[in-house]
Amino acid sequence: MTNTWPKNHLTADDLDAFHSEALSSEMRLHLETCEDCRRLVVLDRQVLEMLGRAPSYAPSAEFADRIMARVQVGKPAPVPVLSFPRWTRRRIAAMVGVAAGMAASVAWSAVNRQLLESWLDGSTAALWNTGAVLWQNGLTYLAAQPWFEGIRSLVGSPVRLGAIGALTIALYATGLLTLRRLVTPSAGSVSNAGA
Ligand SMILES: [Zn+2]
């Protein structure tokens, strides 16, 4: 019988089935004829007995309390609605650098105005014209749409236009604040630490 191993010898599942008296009749027949498997069953029973005699290492009743006594649970910290980056030396230097660059650019443009205009009249002018034509074509196309008249009458008066603009800005600010709340990690206690 040993030459057909491992197909016909008892597996670990068969051993479990044997201990719970649920072994199949086929394997029961094999057990009657196989010396190796009978030895295996005896050894396995010894292992089970040893495991049964081993002391239990279940945590004591105060275990969780002793652990939690050492855990420092911080108080929930309020999340500021607005916060600003810290004034580090590098950030201040970067801001001063950007501001100085902008001031220098404005000063240079004011002093060399004619030179700048000659540049703009040159190669940039062609690009500018192309952009203007595209923009005009886009506006013409937009005005030809059937829904355009409705929107134009809705936004007709300057007061209404201002109100819509203010509403849009308010919605945008609300969206930004909501997004900020969403991406800010919760400062509350970890819920499953006390479970
Ligand atoms: Zn066997």
Task: Summarize the entry for a quick read.
This protein is an all-alpha fold and 195 residues long. The chain is built from 9 helices and no strands. Among the domains are: 2-54, no CATH class; 122-181, no CATH class.
Could you list some keywords that capture this structure?
single chain; 195 residues; mainly alpha; 9 helices; elongated; binds zinc ion
What does this protein look like?
The chain has helices at 12-19, 25-33, 35-53, 63-70, 89-111, 113-121, 123-143, 148-154, 158-183. The chain is mainly alpha-helical and 195 residues long. Helix content is 67%, strand content 0%. The longest helix is centred in the last third of the chain and has 26 residues, at 158-183. The chain is elongated and about 110 Å long. Among the domains are: 2-54, no CATH class; 122-181, no CATH class. The protein contains 9 helices and no strands. Bound molecules: zinc ion.
